[in-house]
Write a structure and sequence with these properties.
It is built from four helices and six strands. It starts with a helix and ends with a helix. It is globular, with a radius of gyration of 16 Å. It has helices at about 1-5, 15-25, 105-115, 115-145; strands spanning about 25-30, 35-40, 45-60, 65-70, 75-80, 90-105. The protein has a single domain (about 1-145), classed as Jelly Rolls, CATH 2.60.120.10. By secondary structure, the protein is of the alpha+beta class.
């Protein structure tokens, strides 16, 4: 498992010991297109790091159904609602192409982070990096929409 984590740029800030700890609460799973990873409002008890394939983040809008917001691929983190109470998903996610991902048990990861503040700090940095990237992507999309006639 650590070899799968070692190859992910997202986790390069973790030491080998920290990656091993994360690997200890993780599995690798494969999903077929159409598989629903999670729905808005559900319990956020895991997260995924995509190894191959594509996952679409969506939001359910009354009258319109599910609206695609962003696609995530290799090396990207899917799901961060597990990090903050009340640990409920704010969006949904569906697999759109055959996908292989590291699935992290977020409950156990929070326990590891609580027990090891250095690991907790490193995980927080990964989350912040992901959040900044998503905000930048959203900003660019909004600017593009503003430019359209």
């Amino acid at each position: 498992m650590t070899t799968a984590l070692d190859s992910l740029p997202l986790l390069t800030g973790l030491s080998p010991t920290q990656r091993a700890a994360v690997a200890g609460v993780s599995t690798v799973e494969t999903y077929a297109p159409g598989h629903r990873l999670f729905d808005e409002g559900g319990v956020a008890d895991r997260c995924w790091v995509v190894l191959t394939g594509c996952v679409m983040i969506d939001h359910t809008t009354p009258g319109s159904g599910r609206v695609a917001l962003q696609s995530l691929g290799h090396g990207e983190l899917v799901g961060w609602s597990w990090a903050m109470p009340p640990h409920r998903w704010h969006f949904g996610a569906t697999v759109v192409s055959p996908t292989r991902a590291v699935v992290v048990d977020a409950v156990r990861l929070r326990e590891l982070a609580d027990a090891d503040p250095e690991l907790g700090y490193r995980v927080a940095l990964v989350m912040l990096e992901t959040l900044v990237e998503r905000l930048q992507t959203t900003r660019i999309r909004l600017l593009d929409l503003q430019r359209q006639p």
